Amino acid sequence: MNRILVTGGAGFIGSNFVHHVVGNTDAQVTVLDKLTYASTEESLAGLPEDRVRLVVGDIADASVVDPLVEEADAVVHYAAESHNDNSLSDPGPFIQTNIVGTFTLLEAARRYDRRFHHVSTDEVYGDLDLDDPKRFTEDTPYNPSSPYSASKAGSDHLVRAWVRSFGVRATISNCSNNYGPWQHVEKFIPRQITEVIDGRRPRVYGDGLNVRDWIHTSDHSSAVLAILDRGRTGETYLIGADGERSNLDVVRAILRHFGRDDDDIEWVTDRAGHDRRYAIESGKLRSELGWTPQFEDFEAGLSDTIEWYQANEAWWRPAKAATEAAYAAKGQ
Ligand code: NAD
Ligand code: DAU
C-alpha cells in the first residue's frame, strides 16, 4: 500500500501511527483532520514533507472525503470524539463525528473500492466485574455504557454491515487504554501527571478501584499496521498488552515517581455509569498476525511518559487551565 489516508492523524494515537508508518514503510500519508481541541499540528512536526501531507477538514463532509479516498490505496480511520466525560456533558458531536463521519468514509470506500481499517475501542463490550476471570474476546457481545462507547459501537456495526452488504474490504480493531506522549491533559494519565507537576493532588473518581488495561500507543500503532498489512477482510482483532492496573495503582506509581506520599490524593465525584473493568485477550492478533508488544513493562513506559510531560510543558500548558476549569465545574 503506497498511499494511506489517516483520519484523525493529528490526534494522540493517530499522530503516533503516522510516525510509525513513516519510520517503518515507504508509504505516502495524507492526514485528514478537523483540528479539534484534541489535536495539534506539533504532533506531526519534523515529518518529511514529501511523505506526509495534512488536509484540514471534516470526515462527515463527503465533498472533502471523496477525493481523498479516491486517491488513496487504503484508509486508516482514527478520527473521533474520544473522551467519555465530554460525551456525558454533550453527546451530539459524538453522534455526528463517530457515526455520521464513519458512514461518510464507508460510502467513499465503497464507491472507490478502497481497503478500510476502522480503529475502535474495547469499551464497545461494556465492562467486567473486578473478580471476573474473563477478558474481552472478538466474540464478546456488544454492551456499551456511555454515549462515547455507544457511538463507537454504532460505527463498528456500520463497518460490519458495509462488509457484508456491499463487500467493502474492511477490518476492525478494538484496543484497550493507550498511554504515551501527545495525549490530551483531559485524559487520566496526563491529567494526573500534570496535576502533580503543578503541585496539586491527583483527582481520582469513585473508589479508585476501576481497572483499565494499559497499552503504549506505539504498540497500538504496530498492531494496526500488522492488521492493515496481513489482516483478513471482515475480521475484528482485539489489541491489548496485558496491562491491567487499578486507577489507584497508576496514581500511586505517578506519586512515587515524584517522591510524593502514596495517599496524597483528591477523591472527586464519580463518572456517571463508570465502567468497572476492561481487559483484553489479544491471542488472535498474536497467533494469526505474529504481533507482540514492545512495551511489556508498564511502570517503565509510565516513567518515560512522565518524563515526556516534564520536558514538553510548552505543548500541554495552553490546554491545562481550561481543562481543569471544566472539571471543577462538575465537581471533578
Ligand atoms: P484524540 O481525541 O486524541 O484524537 C482524535 C482526532 O480526531 C483529533 O486529531 C481530532 O481533531 C480528530 N477529529 C475529531 N473529529 C473530527 C472530524 N469530524 N473530522 C476530522 N477529524 C476529526 O483521540 P485518540 O485518543 O487519539 O483516539 C483515536 C482513535 O482511537 C479514536 O477512534 C478512539 O475511539 C480510538 N481509541 C482510543 C483509545 C485511547 O485509549 N485513547 C483506545 C482505543 C481506541
Ligand atoms: O478503553 C479504551 C478507551 O480508553 C478509549 O476508547 C477512550 O477514547 C479513552 O479515553 C479511554 O477511556 P477511559 O474512560 O477509560 O479513559 P480516561 O482517561 O477518561 O479514564 C481512565 C480511568 O480513570 C477511568 O476509570 C476514569 C478514571 N479517571 C479519569 C480522569 C480523567 C479518574 O479517576 N480521574 C480523572 O481525572
Structure description:
By secondary structure, the protein is of the alpha/beta class. The chain has eleven helices and 13 strands. The protein has helices at residues 12-24, 62-71, 84-89, 92-112, 147-166, 188-197, 217-230, 247-257, 283-289, 298-311, 313-329; strands spanning 3-7, 28-33, 52-56, 74-77, 115-121, 170-175, 178-179, 203-205, 211-213, 215-216, 236-239, 244-246, 266-268. The strands form four sheets. The chain has a seven-stranded parallel β-sheet, with helices on both faces. The termini are far apart. The model has no long low-confidence stretch (mean pLDDT 98). 2'deoxy-thymidine-5'-diphospho-alpha-D-glucose is lined by residues 82-84, 121-123, 176-177, 187-188, 191, 203-205, 210, 212, 247, 271, 278. Residues 7-8, 10-14, 32-36, 38-39, 58-60, 78-82, 97, 101, 119, 121, 152, 175, 177-178, 184 line the site of nicotinamide-adenine-dinucleotide (NAD).
State the end-to-end distance: 45 Å
Overall mean confidence score, pLDDT? 98
DSSP, total strands: 13
| Strand fraction | 15-25%
| Poorly predicted ranges | none
- Major sheet: arrangement of strands: 3-2-1-4-5-6-11
How many helices? The count is 11
Major sheet characteristics? 7 strands, parallel
Helix vs. strand class = alpha/beta
Estimate the helix proportion, in percent: 40-55%
Shape: globular
Listed once per kind, the bound small molecules are: nicotinamide-adenine-dinucleotide, 2'deoxy-thymidine-5'-diphospho-alpha-D-glucose
Task: Using the CA coordinates, give the radius of gyration.
Answer: 19 Å
The H-and-E topology, N to C, reads as EHEEHEHHEHEEHEEEHEEHEHHH
